[in-house]
Amino acid sequence: MRRIAFINEKGGSCKTTLAVNTAAYLAGLGQRILLVDVDPQGQSGKSLGFYVRDLRPTVFDIMMDDTLPASAAIRASHIEGLDVLPANKHLADFPTDAAALTDREHRLAAKLDTLTEYDAILFDSPPSLGLLHTNILLATEEIVVPVNLTYFALDGCAEIVETIETVRERFNKPRLEIILVVATLYRPTKLADEILLRLQSHFPDRMAKTVIGYNVKIDEAQSHGKSIWEYAAWSRGAHLLESLAKEIIQLA
Ligand SMILES: Nc1ncnc2c1ncn2[C@@H]1O[C@H](COP(=O)(O)OP(=O)(O)OP(=O)(O)O)[C@@H](O)[C@H]1O
Ligand SMILES: [Mg+2]
């Protein structure tokens, strides 16, 4: 079973977009996929048409309650083969509520370890580093880092590389690694091209060949609670997200 997390501490770098659409693509190939939302914004669930605001139980409940199995919070999405473990704003309480628990960093991994029915588990992550991230890093093995090509993009990359190294050593997880760095929201400007070049020289072996250009259909699809293939399969955005999903598949 593959476990792939989409992580970048910078907000708006397309973590949710890539997690949801990659999950939908893999499910479309006939795989059984679980998408775990570990962001209090709950946008993975929202992107698939769930009204997450009042949802219980969620990923927060299974992480806090020893008696609740992960299956209690997992819901089938409208896409065949794609299940979701949703989040909502309650998850923001996790760092405080779990502070006294000695296994607080392992709560998510422990619950997911009992699941055997999936071909892959994908994780959407919140935009700030902390206890939720540590839980994701201990539950995953592969990491995809989406990078919005803006001036501060490289700052976020340096942070995540450092965090991963710390977690790998502190928790003895030698297999935890960045498999791909993906440039997102690309527009053909001099600054974007410069940042792209710097990223490529920073991650020569791990830079995705696919550069996700700006395409409004991607945004629209999310606002309709649909994957890009349901909403606009013919669009440039769909082709780009498919190309990226294929790169991720090839890295298995
Ligand atoms: N290629 C694209 N073209 C146009 N809009 C896009 C594209 N990719 C993502 N978006 C839009 O950009 C916004 C930010 O994307 P997304 O929510 O995936 O980022 P995020 O990293 O998950 O943000 P956060 O850190 O807040 O969780 C969303 O409204 C999304 O629909
Ligand atoms: Mg998000």
Question: How would you describe this protein?
Answer:
- With 252 residues, the chain is α/β, with parallel strands linked by helices.
- It has a single domain, classed as Rossmann fold (3-Layer(aba) Sandwich), CATH 3.40.50.
- The chain is built from 11 helices and 7 strands.
- It has helices at 15-28, 43-47, 59-64, 94-97, 107-112, 131-139, 153-170, 190-202, 216-223, 228-232, 236-250, and strands at 2-6, 33-37, 75-76, 82-85, 120-124, 142-148, 177-184.
- The chain has a 7-stranded mixed sheet with strand order 3-4-2-5-1-6-7, with helices on both faces.
- Strand 3 (75-76) and strand 4 form a beta hairpin.
- It is globular, with a radius of gyration of 17 Å.
- The model has no long low-confidence stretch (mean pLDDT 95).
- The structure holds adenosine-5'-triphosphate and magnesium ion.
- Adenosine-5'-triphosphate binds next to helix 1 and helix 9.
How are the SSEs placed, and which strands pair?
Blueprint: E1 2-6, H1 15-28, E2 33-37, H2 43-47, H3 59-64, E3 75-76, E4 82-85, H4 94-97, H5 107-112, E5 120-124, H6 131-139, E6 142-148, H7 153-170, E7 177-184, H8 190-202, H9 216-223, H10 228-232, H11 236-250
Parallel strand pairs: 1-5, 1-6, 2-4, 2-5, 6-7
Antiparallel strand pairs: 3-4
Helix pairs in contact: 1-11
Key features of this structure:
single chain; 252 residues; alpha/beta; seven-stranded mixed sheet; 41% helix; globular; binds adenosine-5'-triphosphate; binds magnesium ion
